Amino acid sequence: MIMRNKIVFILVPLIIAAITSCGNVDKKDGSIITMTKAELLDKVKGGWAGQAIGVTYGGPTEFRYLSRMIPDTVEIRWDKELVTFFYDKAPGLYDDIYMDLTFVEIFDKEGLDAPVESFANAFAYADYMLWHANQAARYNILNGIQAPASGNWKNNMHADDIDFQIEADFAGLMTPGMINAAMIYADRIGHIMNYGDGFYGGAYVAAMYSLAFIYDDVNKIVNEALKVIPEESKYYQCMQDVISFHKKYPDDWKKAWQAIDDSEWSTDLHCPDGIASPFNINATINSSYVLLGLLYGGGELEKTLDISTRAGQDSDCNPATAAGILCTMMGYDNIPDYWIDPIKPVEDRDFAYTTISLNDVYDMSYRHALKVIGRFGGKADEESVQIAVQVPEALPLEAGFPNVFPAKVTRPATGDNTEGRRGILFALESDKPETIEFSGIGIVIKGSIAGEPEMEYTGELEVSIDGEAGRIMKLPVDYRKRTDELYWNVQIPDGDHIAELRWLNPVEGLSINVRSYIEFKSEKNKIIVDYK
């Protein structure tokens, strides 16, 4: 069992009685395998290039298809100019990759034992935009709640979201065949922003990347990697359902997609944006779309990309993950020219918010992999590496939001509200307090502070529950530094409550706008939507 702060490794036998080349070896867990350094580098490059291909392919469709498949009649563009176009015009599309690079760079500067604080601070103080679990974690870190508490469900309503899933690639690419080592690095970084199912999403992705170095069968990778996820977790149960649907409908991914959509996994219960909404950024549903692409793609890049994209929701991140895993298995040199040629013109160009290019990260992850191989029972000589393949160990069970269920969403009615402002329940424009009556065990209040983004101003919103001294939320006008919620607390004693909101440092011309609020109970209910 891998425990935080007390890591137990299963050291594989260092018996090298019959070492053959990586292409011919029977790669059973616990074996020693050999591959050339050229093969290792080729697979590392394939993983990073596959991500770039996938995120570019799915980029124009991201969150445009919610709880529905992208029809076959919708053409998805791919041509030689597309990657260069996005590098020039929309470099933020590559957040899947430059988020990874934040962590890769820390490993490069500080070594394999870099402390979690280094990763957390690099991420929290970066200039790029963040969303959901990442954004909430940044807010926590900037306001004194350090990792791993920054990703814990008690401090982060987005703990189950997709964030670590889309930035965990590095952990698998630096741990070829060493699946438990991948979990060590995933644990260190994944809990900065996620917990429970959200953390497992990234851990599973890292595990699949790790195994993609040593197996050439997608089904084997998908099933073997799942062994690191505790069977009692909802995440494991969802992935197992997808695998079962693939067996039931082996020739029709759309029937499998429908079975997923008809299941409990299609409902988001904790991300405030996904409650009573077709929007779903939960790691479980999006991981299921990654598996659809991998399983039904059958090792073919085009099918893998197209299916994981057409499944919808986060339809650039999911093909990026699926293609990254598949192209690690294939290797860079085996990626068809049709897909790799558009990547080659940008391989020397730095990603936005970094000084790192694809060619740079190919080399960085390769060097990190060599170090990890040496640390975990393997070795390298001038031409080849010997990798001590690890027996998968299940992570500890962790479940976010125990007995926390949304019960009621209060939203503004269609039309203008609050003196002509559309989509607002009420606005704070002075230090005069406003109140919200609610019942249950928790509340999330959605809204924002209105002002020009460049303003150097941080509002202070005090929220008191039932007259008790309240929590003060920091609300910078700069969206990068605040949360997407005005307030959240899902650990309140059950009962009827009054939340009082007071703007402590009002500024004339600005306002704090309350757009909706969500009430939570300790039992699962049919969610009521109330329009006011």
Structure overview:
The chain is α+β, with helices and mostly antiparallel strands. It has two domains: 2-388, Orthogonal Bundle (ADP-ribosylglycohydrolase fold), CATH 1.10.4080.10; 405-531, Jelly Rolls (Sandwich). It is 36% helix and 17% strand. The chain has 16 helices and 17 strands. Strands 6, 9, 11, 14, 16 and 17 form a six-stranded mixed sheet that branches. It has a four-stranded antiparallel sheet with strand order 10-15-12-13, with no helix packed on it. Strands 3-5-4 form a three-stranded antiparallel sheet. Helix 8 packs across helix 9 (218-225) and helix 12 (283-297) packs across helix 14 (317-330). The longest helix has 22 residues, at 37-58. The protein is globular and about 70 Å long. The chain starts with a strand and ends with a strand.
List the helices and strands and how they pair.
Layout: E1 2-3, E2 6-7, E3 32-36, H1 37-58, H2 82-89, H3 95-110, H4 116-124, H5 132-142, H6 169-173, H7 179-190, H8 197-212, H9 218-225, H10 234-248, H11 253-261, H12 283-297, H13 301-310, H14 317-330, H15 337-340, H16 358-375, E4 379-380, E5 384-388, E6 405-411, E7 416-417, E8 421-422, E9 426-428, E10 434-440, E11 442-450, E12 458-465, E13 471-476, E14 485-489, E15 495-503, E16 511-521, E17 528-531
Parallel strand pairs: 6-17
Antiparallel strand pairs: 1-2, 3-5, 4-5, 6-16, 7-8, 9-16, 10-15, 11-14, 11-16, 12-13, 12-15
Provide a short characterization of the protein structure.
The chain has 532 residues and is α+β, with helices and mostly antiparallel strands.
